[in-house]
Every structure is written in C-alpha cells, then in structure tokens.
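Annual report, structural modelling task.

Input specification for the manganese (II) ion complex:
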Amino acid sequence: MSYNLTVGLEIHAELKTKTKMFCISANDPDEKRPNVNICPVCMAHPGTLPVINREAVKNVLKVGIAVGGEIAEFTEFDRKNYFYPDIPKGYQISQYKYPLISGGSLNNIALERIHLEEDTASSSHDGGGGEAKGSLIDFNRAGVPLMELVTKPVIKTPAEAGAFARELQLLLRTLGVSDANMEKGEMRVEANISISKTAELGTKVEVKNLNSFRSVERAIAYEVERMTKILEGGEGEIAQETRGWDENKQATFSQRKKESAHDYRYFPDPDLPKLKLSELPEFEEKYLMKEIPELPWERRSRFVREYGVKPENAEIFIADKIMGNFFEDAIMRAGGDRPSVTLIENYITSDIMGMMKDSNSFGGVTSQSLVKIVTMIKKGELSSRGAKDTLAILYEKGGDPEIIAKENGFIQQNDEGALKEMVAKIIAENPVVALEYKNGKIAVLQFLIGQGMKLSRGSANPETLKKFFEEALG
Ligand code: MN
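The model returned the following structure:
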C-alpha cells in the first residue's frame, strides 16, 4: 500500500498599499536603491510607535470576503519574538490568536485563517559584489504589509497545491490587493508536507523558498519520494524540520530544525490598539462588498456559460485581464450572437495572441476593427484566409479593415455574373477534367474550384464557386 500525502500551504503576499504597515514610508517594491523608503518606525528605532494601515486591513478583509471566510469580531496584533538581523526590533508584528479572517475556502480547499503582519528587511550575504564581503541589509521591504493565508492540511496532490496557489494569485490580482509575482517574492509559498498510511498524520516537513508554481509542485513530489525512501528503507525517522528548495538541483535540502510556536513567545503588542471590527463602519462587510469586482471563478463560469467559450480559452481570458476585457468588449460591440463570439474567441486566441507574442500590445487591432472583420466574414465578404491577412496588416499598421481588404484585393468575389463567366472560362480551358466530372468523377471538382481560387487570387467564395461549377456541369 502506498502512502497518502497531506499538504497544508502557508502563503505570504505583499499587499499593494501606498505606505507600509505601521508607518508612512512608501511601499514601493520596484525601488532598486537600497534604504530609500525608510523611517525611524520601520528601522526599529527605540521609542517609535506603530500606527495600523487601514488600507492593508481592508485588503485582507476583501480577500476574506471573497473566500467566504468569517471576519473577526475582535482582532489584535501580536509580537512574534525572534532574533535575526533583518528584524532589528527583535520581533515581527503579526497576529496569533485573533486573525482577521477565519475559515473560508478557495478552489475547494478549506482555509484555516488569513492574518496580517509586516515583512522583514531583505538581506544579501555576498556584500553585493559576489564575494563574501559581509552581509548587507535593505530596509525598503521592512514593514511592508504582508498577508499570510494558511490552508487546512487537506491538499492531497502536488497538482492540487499548484492549482490552489495559481487561483490565489488570480484572486489577489483581481482584487487589486497584491501583484503577487512569485519570482519577485511578492507571493511566497511554504508547503507543510507529510505522508502516512493511516489516518494519523505523519511527521511534518516544511519546505520554503518556493518561488514558482512549478517548484511548489516539484518540491512536494520530491518530498513524497524522499520520505517514502526513509520509511521504506528503514533509514531511521523523518525529522521534523524546515527544508529549502534548490532550483538548480531540483531537490530539497535541510535548513533547520523547526521551532514550535511557544519559542516565539507571542504576546499582544501593547503599542497597538485592539480592533472591534464590527464597530468600525469602514471595515463593514456590506461596505467592502462594493469594492469587490467579479471574482475569477465567477468570471470563468460566466464566460463558459454565457458565451460558450472553450474552458482553455476562458482560462486565458481570466488570467489576462486585458485580454479578457478586449474579448468582452468585442462581444458587446458585435451583439453577442454565437457565430460572432466563436469567431472573436478564435481570432483573439490564435491570430492576435500569435502576433502579440509576449508583448502586451494589440498593435493596430482594436475591438472595433476586429468586430468589423467578423462582420465582413459573416457577410461573405472576407474568407478566413482574407481575414487572417487583413488582421496581420491591421496589427502592423492599424486602420480600417474594410479599406485594407479592398486595397489588398482580399474582398471575396461575390459578383455572380463575373464568377459565372470565370467558371465557364475554366470549363472551356479544361475539357478533359469537365468530361471526367460528367462521367461521375466528382473529386475533380476540387481541382476546378482550385483553378477558380487561383484566378480570383483567393478572393472568390469557394462555396459559391462549387455551386456554379455543379450547375454548369450538371
Ligand atoms: Mn508569517
């Protein structure tokens, strides 16, 4: 019998606020110069006093509402005591007993809690020059509001963990509370992993430094293998410890033995007020609800249900808000009928995205001009080939698709008289083929239509050509 995997995730996300968690220093993750956005409070000078950032509290509450969690009636901040140079106060202000949010679920994973704390300074240990000249500390990040979300230990596969983290990133971005870029450290995932053959959980290992969705999945899979080997091989026991993830080796490595909670000697921060959230109107659910936009899962199911978008395309429109808005804008302009929706969906996800590559630019294509192309296709004025060519020119140069199509001879020939003349000409020039058709070799029709497309330089409608050939030879 194989082992059952149990994973709980702890995810930290830097909140996108104007100022830091407890002071008025700017919260600017893009600041490259060290120690610019600092003040005596976030530098931990003695005698300074913290002030709670309302915007940060609101951000966490919005996440809580979105996941259906319970907003605390009473909440407070605690000191989490430990020593490290990146936290010179000697403690991190966090929340222990009374988190802002309890419960809720995301992607069918039950949540334990969501609380608010402050980020630490960032340290670099190579002295910045590659060689070990000492350690440097940059306080720009110190005191940045940090949301910590903890799931219940209910995740059963690496893929489920990855999917959860992706959905959370989407949610944070949709709510506008965090950019949640994992490679920038704006969203940091830790996985608590254990395996067991019984209902009782096995020894827990915590893996840190997971800075991509892929490493979340790979680190968990790696741990399952490593732990199974230990248990099966009789090489002693699994140590309860913190491990890191080595991206190059694609392996975890031991970092330190895990402290238990009491080592931090949490206690309520006497410098901060306790909050009775229900008595503060700005934090009321009914007020915050107004600032919550359509959520990723709502948008996903609406796109599939209302527009009949393919699930994989819906995912593109959900993950990329600009793309999703472009799609919806075009649909509205087109009137929302099914053939238009399908054409718009396909042209965006294949042609337009192909031309955009990784850029964010739609080039000269606008939702109006895309709709114009779709209308021309529906009227039979543009073939799909002609539409592709028109789009390519439109992307490069912009302009009016109708004029582009006319100027470049993409308009489909629907002049019946001219087409019939052409059909007669082709038959006269290919008497043998025409005879073969009359003798029952229907397949040669394709050849004749091909000649028509060639003569019209691709502008004839092949369906119309087919009809005329059948009439002329029938
Ligand atoms: Mn934390």
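The longest helix spans residues 213-233.
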